[in-house]
Amino acid sequence: MPRYRAQQIARWLYGKHVDSLEEMTNLSLSDRRRLGEVAEIRAPRPREERVSADGTKKYAFLTDGGDVVEAAMIPDGERRTLCLSSQVGCRVGCRFCATGAMRLRGNLSAGEILNQYRSMPERDQITNIVYMGMGEPLDNLPAVIESARLLTAEEGYGLSNRRITLSTVGKPAPLARFLENCDVRLAVSLHTPFQEQRRELMPGTRGYDLLELMQLLRRRAYGDSRRVTFEYVMLKGVNDSPEHADATAELVSGMRTRVNLIPFHPWDGNDMQPSLPAQIEQFRARLERRGVTATVRASRGLDIEAACGLLATKHPG
Ligand code: SF4
Questions:
Q1: Beta strands in 235-305 (DSSP E)
Q2: Tens digit of pLDDT at every position of the chain (317 positions)
Q3: Where are the domains of the chain?
Q4: pTM flag (> 0.90)
C-alpha cells in the first residue's frame, strides 16, 4: 500500500474511532480486504461499571486471557483523570496494596492498555491519564511505551505528554530505558526513605538500590527537566514518624519536586492502619518546613473500591 495509507488508517482508528475496517471508506475495497487478512479492530466495552457517591467511576474490562482489569475515571472540577492499568495483578507485592496481594497474573498488551481510554464512555472529556491502576508499568515496558506513544503521537490520540503520568516503584534499569523512550511525566512510589524498610514494604524492590534510583532521577529525569513527583502512602506507626519526614526531605533535597501524601485505605485481609489526618498534616508541614513541597491526595471512589491501592478482583463471576 502507498505510505500515506498508514496515516489514513491511523486517522480512522484514533481520530474517528471506527469499529470496523469497512468504515474506512477512503481505502479501496481491495486494500480493506488485504488489511482484513492481517488485522482486526477490537475495542471491547467495559463489562461492568460502578459509580461512587463522589462521581468517581470504575470500569472493569475483560482481557484476551479472560481476566478482569480495572480503570477508574476521577472527576475533579473541570479535570477528568483516567487511572488505567498496565497488568493483571502485580508482582511488586506492596504490603498495603490489594492489587499486590493478587500477585501477577499477566501483562496487558498495548491494545488492552489503550482500550481503557478508547472504550471509556467519558473518553472525550478525559483531561489527564495516569498509569496508576493495577500493575507496575515498568514490568510491562514494551506495551507501556507503545501505548504511551500512541496516546501522545500526532497520528495517534494526540494528547499532551504533560497530561500523562506514569507511576512506578522505579527499578533503575527499566526506568532508564523508559526515560530514553518516553517523554511523559513520572510519579515515583517512595513510601519510605529507608531502603531496608522499603524492601520490606515493597518486596519487589529487593535487589534495587534506592540511592541508585535517586541518582538516576537527579541525573536523567531532571537533566531533561521532566516533571517528577514522589508518592508516599501514609501508614500509621510504620512510615509516618518525624524521622521519616526528615529523611524524606533529605533524600529529595535540591530537587524541584513534590511529595504527594496518600491516605491509606484499609481493605479486608490487610491489618495495616491509616495514619490519622492530624499525623498526615504534621508530616506534610514538617516536609514543607524543610523546603519540600508536599500535598495530601484527596481520597476518591472509596465506596466502590476505586481509591488508590484498592483496584483488585471484586467482580461477580
Ligand atoms: S502499589 Fe503499585 S507497585 Fe505496589 S503492588 Fe500495588 S500496583 Fe504493584
A1: 258-263, 293-296
A2: 889 999 999 999 999 999 999 999 999 999 999 999 999 999 999 999 999 999 999 999 999 889 999 999 999 999 999 999 999 999 999 999 988 888 999 999 999 999 999 999 999 999 999 999 999 999 999 999 999 999 999 999 999 999 999 999 999 999 999 999 998 999 999 999 999 999 999 999 998 899 999 999 988 776 667 778 999 999 999 999 999 999 999 999 988 899 999 999 888 888 899 999 999 999 999 999 999 999 998 877 777 776 666 666 444 33
A3: 1-41, 44-304
A4: yes
| CA gap 1, 31 in Å, rounded | 7
CATH superfamily for 44-304 is Aldolase class I (3.20.20.70)
CATH class of the domain defined by 1-41: mainly alpha
Query: Which distant-in-sequence residues (6+ apart) come within 8 Å of 92 by Cβ?
Result: 100, 136, 139, 169, 202, 203, 204, 205
- Choosing from 94, 144, 267, 305 the residue with most ligand 1 atoms within 8 A of its CB, the one to mutate for a pocket test is 94
Note if 308 is an active site residue.
yes
Residue with cell 521519616: 244
User: From the candidates 70, 112, 136, 305, which is the catalytic residue?
Assistant: 70
